[in-house]
C-alpha cells in the first residue's frame, strides 16, 4: 500500500512538472529540447503517410461500398469477428427484376427475351463486382487498415512517451538552473542524467519505428500493384460480358438493336485483316503511326513480334495504332 501511494505521489509530481514545463515553454520563459533534423524529417514523413493512408482508405471503402449503412454494418461485423452478410449488389437486384419481368411478359416475345438476357447479364456483372470488391478488400484495404491499427498506433504511442520524456528532461534542466544550494544542485544533476538517459533511449526506439515506415510504404506499393491488377481483370470481365450480351441481343428474332460490331465500314477487309473500332482519338507521334478518330472503323492486322500495336489501314493510308485504342469488331 505504501509503495502504491509513493508511486501515485511520484506520478502526480511528474505530471505537474510537465504541465509547468509546457506552460513556461508557451510563455517563452523556458527552453525546449529540439530533436535532430533527421528525426524531424522521419516524423513528418510518418505523419504524412498516416494522413494520406487514412484518406485513401476512407475513399476506397466509399468507392467499393457506396452505401454508408452497409459500411457501418460491415464495421460492426468485423469488430465482433463475425462473417459479413452476403448481400446482393444493386446490379443483381436489377437483374432479378428484369428476369421476372421478362418471364411475365413472355420469353417468346423479343422484349421479354431481351429482358431475361439483360437481367442475367446484370446478375453476372453484379457477381463480378462483388468478387472484385472482395479481392480489393483483401489485397489493399486490409493491409492499409492493419498498418494504421498496428504500426501507426505504436508509433503514436511511442511519440507520446517521447514527448513525456522530453518534458521530464527539460524540467530537470530547469531545476538544475534554479538550484541554489550545492546539495540541491547535485540532486538535480542526478535527476537530469537519468532523464537524459531515458530520453535518449526513447528517442532511439521511436526513431527505429519511424525508419520502418519506408518498409511499410514498399509493402503498400506491392498491394497497390495487386489492386490495379484486380481492377484490370474486373473491367476486362465486364467488357467481355457486355460484348457477349450485345451479340445475344443482336441475334434475337426481329431485334432492331445493332451492337457496335455491326458498324459498316467502306474499308475492304483483306485476308489476315480484321475490322476495329477506335475507342478514342489517337494522334500519330511519327510517320510510322496512323492518326485515328473516336468511333472510326478501320482495318487492322497483327504486327509480328509487337504486342502493343496493330497495323491500321484507311484507304491508301497505313500506320501503327496502339491496341488499347482499338476494339476488334470482326474476325476473319
UniProtKB/TrEMBL annotation:
Domain BAR: 24-258
Record's GO cellular component terms: cytoplasm; membrane
Protein name: Endophilin-A
Keyword terms, alphabetized: SH3 domain
Keyword Lipoprotein attached: no
Presence of the UniProt keyword Ribosomal protein in the record: no
One of the protein's GO biological processes: membrane organization
Pfam families: BAR, SH3_2
Organism from which the protein derives: Nasonia vitripennis
CDD domains referenced in this protein's UniProt entry, alphabetically: BAR_Endophilin_B, SH3_Endophilin_B
Family the UniProt entry places it in: Belongs to the endophilin family.
SUPFAM superfamilies: BAR/IMD domain-like, SH3-domain
InterPro entries: AH/BAR_dom_sf, BAR_dom, Endophilin_SH3RF, SH3-like_dom_sf, SH3_domain
Domain SH3: 271-331
PROSITE patterns: BAR (PS51021), SH3 (PS50002)
Amino acid at each position: 500500500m505504501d509503495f502504491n501511494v509513493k508511486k501515485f505521489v511520484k506520478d502526480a509530481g511528474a505530471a505537474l512538472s510537465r504541465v509547468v514545463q509546457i506552460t513556461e515553454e508557451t510563455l517563452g520563459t523556458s527552453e525546449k529540447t529540439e530533436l535532430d533534423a533527421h528525426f524531424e524529417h522521419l516524423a513528418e514523413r510518418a505523419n504524412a503517410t498516416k494522413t494520406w493512408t487514412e484518406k485513401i482508405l476512407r475513399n476506397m471503402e466509399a468507392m467499393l461500398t457506396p452505401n454508408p449503412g452497409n459500411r457501418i454494418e460491415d464495421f460492426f461485423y468485423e469488430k465482433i469477428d463475425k462473417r459479413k452478410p452476403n448481400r446482393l449488389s444493386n446490379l443483381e437486384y436489377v437483374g432479378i427484376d428484369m428476369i421476372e419481368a421478362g418471364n411475365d411478359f413472355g420469353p417468346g416475345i423479343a422484349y421479354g427475351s431481351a429482358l431475361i438476357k439483360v437481367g442475367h447479364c446484370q446478375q453476372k456483372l453484379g457477381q463480378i463486382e462483388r468478387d472484385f470488391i472482395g479481392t480489393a478488400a483483401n489485397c489493399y484495404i486490409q493491409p492499409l487498415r492493419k498498418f494504421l491499427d498496428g504500426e501507426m498506433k505504436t508509433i503514436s504511442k511511442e511519440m507520446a512517451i517521447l514527448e513525456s520524456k522530453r518534458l521530464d528532461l527539460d524540467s530537470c534542466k530547469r531545476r538544475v538552473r534554479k538550484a541554489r544550494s550545492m546539495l540541491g544542485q547535485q540532486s538535480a544533476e542526478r535527476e537530469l542524467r537519468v532523464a537524459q538517459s531515458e530520453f535518449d533511449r526513447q528517442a532511439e526506439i521511436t526513431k527505429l519505428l519511424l525508419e520502418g515506415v519506408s518498409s511499410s510504404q514498399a509493402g503498400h506499393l506491392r498491394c497497390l500493384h495487386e489492386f490495379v491488377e484486380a481492377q484490370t481483370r474486373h473491367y476486362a470481365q465486364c467488357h467481355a460480358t457486355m460484348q457477349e450480351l450485345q451479340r445475344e441481343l443482336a441475334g434475337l428474332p426481329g431485334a432492331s438493336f445493332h451492337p457496335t460490331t455491326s458498324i459498316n465500314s467502306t474499308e475492304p477487309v483483306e485476308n489476315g485483316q480484321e475490322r476495329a473500332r477506335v475507342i478514342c482519338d489517337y494522334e500519330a507521334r511519327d510517320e510510322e503511326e496512323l492518326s485515328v478518330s473516336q468511333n472510326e472503323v478501320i482495318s487492322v492486322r497483327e504486327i509480328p513480334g509487337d504486342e502493343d500495336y496493330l497495323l491500321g489501314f484507311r484507304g491508301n493510308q497505313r500506320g501503327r495504332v496502339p491496341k488499347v485504342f482499338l476494339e476488334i469488331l470482326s474476325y476473319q
